[in-house]
Amino acid sequence: MTTNVPVIDSHAAPVAGRKNFLNCSSGFLSWAGTLDHKRIGIMYLVGVSLAFLAGGLFALLVRLHLWKPDGMLFDNVQYNQIFTLHGAFMVFIFVIPAIPGSLGNMVLPLMLGAKDVALPRLNLLSFYLWLAGALMATLAIVLGGFDTGWTFYAPYSLYTDQAVVTIGLAVFVLGFSSIFTGLNFIVTVHKLRAPGLTWFRMPLFVWAIYATAILQVLATPVLGITVLLVAFERLYHIGIFDPRLGGDPVLFEHFFWFYSHPAVYIMVLPAFGIVSELVSVHSRKPLFGYKLIAFSSLAIAIISFLVWGHHMFTSGQSTYALFAFSFLTFFVAIPTAIKEFSWVATIWKGSIALNAPMLYTLAFLIIFAIGGLTGVILGALNVDIHLHDTYFVVAHFHYVMMGSIALAFFAGLHHWWPKMFGVMYNETLAKIACGIIFVGFNTTFIPQFIMGSRGMPRRYATYVPDYMGFHQASTIGAMVLGAGVALMVFYLVASLFQGKKAMQNQWGGVTLDWLTPTPPPLENFDEAPVVTTEVYDYSTLDYKAMQTPVA
Amino acid sequence: MFALLIQDPVNINGPDRSPQQAVDAYGQLTKLASTFSHVDGLFYFTYAVCIFFFVLIVGVLLFSVVKYRRKTWDQLPASNTTHNTPLEVVWTVIPLIIVMIMFAWGYMGARDMTVVPLEASRNTYKASAKQWNWTFHYPNHPVASYNEVWLEVGKPVQFLLESSDVLHAFYLPAMRVKRDVIPGRYQSVWFTPTTVGEYHLFCAEYCGKDHSKMYAKVHVVDTATFNAPQRPWDQWEDSTPELAAKSGANLYSQLCIACHSVNGTPGVGPSWKGLFIKNADGTYTGRQREVIDNTDGGKRKTITVDDAYIIESVHLPEAKKVAEEPYVRNAMTAFPDLDERKVRGLIEYMKTLADTK
């Protein structure tokens, strides 16, 4: 994609002293009250990273506790609180907002050639709602914690004496943050595309964020209503889910998963978008099956509303419901498989750069293959009856949520880091950290697949000794994973202080985000861009004329 | 931290959990002990398909990365192909066919597991789940058992599942059986145990504090053992006080241990240590205890612990409630099905924990 306006010499070093969005103004209020999507994106980035580190710390405590069959660190109540905190922080405060909030905010308007998102004030409100939700969740810990699991299943969540209402309201507020972000991005994509940027010239990250936004707007209200009902039931004893009051606990499961299954795609579609983008840029090849990938995002978004019952195969649904939910679940596998095949086909015969973002992407492709394929195993009805609520499921969704989504987030972070901050991290350390994370991750979760298929139930503070070896292997893996993440945080933060200056177009990309100065000026482009070429057309850049980038 | 890692494990409480579950020939699943072999069949079929696709995807990926890796900054891709319709049709249609096979196979299996055959419904047990215990009632036998259940090998069995508090799940990995237990409705599962042995029964739906300790052991025994005049779950040896205490200790470890300690440590409920005092002449006197008597309008009273008080407390725990923090705030599970003979076994066991005067 090129523009008909003279863009910067895309591979020259940045002009010294040029005003960009980072240094155009300073002071606390210039950040706290900013309407600039890039600054809001960075505030999200800081926030979700802290949430990720907190959630990761809880995970390490869980793993350490499970070193011995009867636990090492906590009593059962404390353990239940810690695994609930891990789940709630990771799902609601990290994974759901992470990519749309930070990288989506940062990159989406750049890719569209827009000055900002369509509704900048709403964007800032989204961030503050996120912040309020995160603080309320933290407050719930101070108020004594909560031990319901992140799923809040009734009637336990109605009876337990812990801070369920506080965390429920936190989830409610976080839900509004998510809805506003989605709404904002939908409007932005419809209204603010640069002249010439037709729908099928949009980068796939934009498509993915767009499909995600539709899910956020349509699905999240159901979660909000459900947690409010739980709060009302706890406070006023209205019988909705409590069988003692004439309610139905299975109804809660239906409501919860009606949101939380689409939520899986709210989390994973942006990750798909990042990977589509990175695979193309770092192979310097147009995406294989561009339209099919774009449509498969939408297909996944639609079908994902119709498969929630596969979380409830053992709840006693009628066999007709089992039939329908299992059938549709297998259907989701197809667009997902198409994506994976298309990414591999894009890499095939490409010019593959083995830089840090691409290594994280390759790690994603391998881990996501496992995460997706084990999902197929769980889709089979009779097999799922055996595996449901075991560590097999735990391992499967960690392969998707942590191994795939978080790794895609890391990949995107490494990809756009030079664009965001104008500096490069130490790539050698980045490659080492990626390797450590990959090894640590697989060591953590492969044993969980095995013990899960042998019947180890999830959410167990203690366990029968049969599974001790697997738990210990998993704990060792988690420590390695934690070390890898710590190394990553170290070199990323260090780069802000002593990183080398990044190139204008560090990776040789051709989407609009790479055709603006690094870091971008406050309103993104010096002159409004006009798009005249097809998406991912790498023939428009003259790589020979560029300098080899710093690393 | 390292010191923590090497300390000895504390003994696991509750029913003995030691049997190592055997693993099947492929080393992945627990050895199947029921007739639901279609679960294992489809599991391994899907597993094989997954391994095939994984090797294919990662193989192509790694091959490309090695072969087409960028050596100089300005290296252009070896090909710019963006479409290959036959290839795209193939990789859509073939997975579609494969997953439809899995779907049909899985559905037929699940239907088999859901529809209870007549023979199993004639052999219906009841499993009652309660935070954090299982109680089993048998067909045609009045005695219930707790956290342990005996089944006859080769005979189809149905379990009616009920919960009196929160969600639980009845999970028997070796039988490939799992069903959520939902308060306010009956659920059922059936299976035919095929191999004599002892198996884990887990609660697989998170149910609060001691979710992970909500464990029962399933004994699959041969027909002769099952039908012996003294049924295996009805063995209660109390011909001497020592044997009664031993039986009581056994029952304690299944039923009471989660809340009552025997070494003086406070738990959810009071410790059993020193409930009785052993006199010099070998007789026992009950300890004085302050209680709230809910059978008498909630008055505070001092009573002496005796057999009648303990039997009442097992059957109707709220009747006379120990007026001490924190026990006064906790509600004990009632065990109305525990017959007096067994409670007397518990009392004999308590007496072995008596303080000496």
Please provide a written account of the structure.
The complex is a heterodimer of chains A (551) and B (357). With 551 residues, chain A is mainly α. Chain A has one domain: Cytochrome c oxidase-like, subunit I domain (Cytochrome C Oxidase, Chain A), CATH 1.20.210. In chain A, 65% of the residues lie in helices and 1% in strands. Chain A contains 15 helices and 2 strands. Chain A has helices spanning 28-32, 37-65, 76-112, 120-142, 156-159, 164-191, 204-236, 249-283, 290-303, 319-347, 356-379, 381-387, 391-421, 427-453, 468-498; strands at residues 423-424, 500-501. Chain A has a two-stranded antiparallel sheet. Chain A is globular. Residues 1-8 of chain A have low confidence and may be disordered. With 357 residues, chain B is of the alpha+beta class. Chain B has 2 domains: 10-64 and 81-235, Immunoglobulin-like; 241-356, Cytochrome c-like domain (Cytochrome Bc1 Complex, Chain D, domain 2). Chain B is 31% helix and 23% strand. Chain B is built from 8 helices and 16 strands. Chain B has a 5-stranded mixed sheet. In chain B, strands 4-10-9-6-7 form a 5-stranded mixed sheet. A 3-stranded mixed sheet of chain B has the order 12-11-16, with no helix packed on it. In chain B, helix 2 packs antiparallel against helix 3 (85-114), helix 6 (241-255) packs across helix 8 (340-352) and helix 7 packs across helix 8 (340-352). Chain B is elongated, with a radius of gyration of 28 Å. Chain B starts with a helix and ends with a strand. At the A-B interface, helix 3, helix 8, helix 10, helix 11 and helix 12 of A face helix 2, helix 3, strand 7 and strand 9 of B.
